[in-house]
Amino acid sequence: MSELSTTMRVRDVMQIEFDLIDGMKSVADALRLMKYHSNATIMVEKRSPDDEYGMLLISDIARHVIARDRNPERVNVYEIMAKPVLSVHPDMSIKYCSQLLQRFDLSRVPVVENRQVVGLVSFEDLVLRGLFSEL
Length: 135
Fold this sequence. Notes:
Helices cover 37% and strands 17% of the residues. It is built from six helices and five strands. Helix 2 (27-37) links the parallel strand 1 and strand 2. The protein starts with 9 loop residues before the first helix and ends with a helix. It has one domain (10-134): CBS-domain (Roll).
């Protein structure tokens, strides 16, 4: 990767619109939210201040509900979500964020500041809003 003219930060490229869902909701509820907002990722709310966020990807639903022939109305989000999840700070360089995603074989991560999710960032964001904007 060539040196960017200025150091781009995760906050410069992250998606600031994302959905939060209660882990007790059904996968069917999550799917309705995903379909309505055209999101492939939903963040799962903390249950208490000492809890951690979870994340539900469309691929989790494919693997744990469709592939196992389970009824999405009868599976709760908490049963198939990832928790805890790695997160990044909004001030992280996009270069290091990209390296972290690659190292842990992740497609996207939440952006957390002051223990609150403030956005999501993916490889697509890093390339199209980061690197590509510099070309």
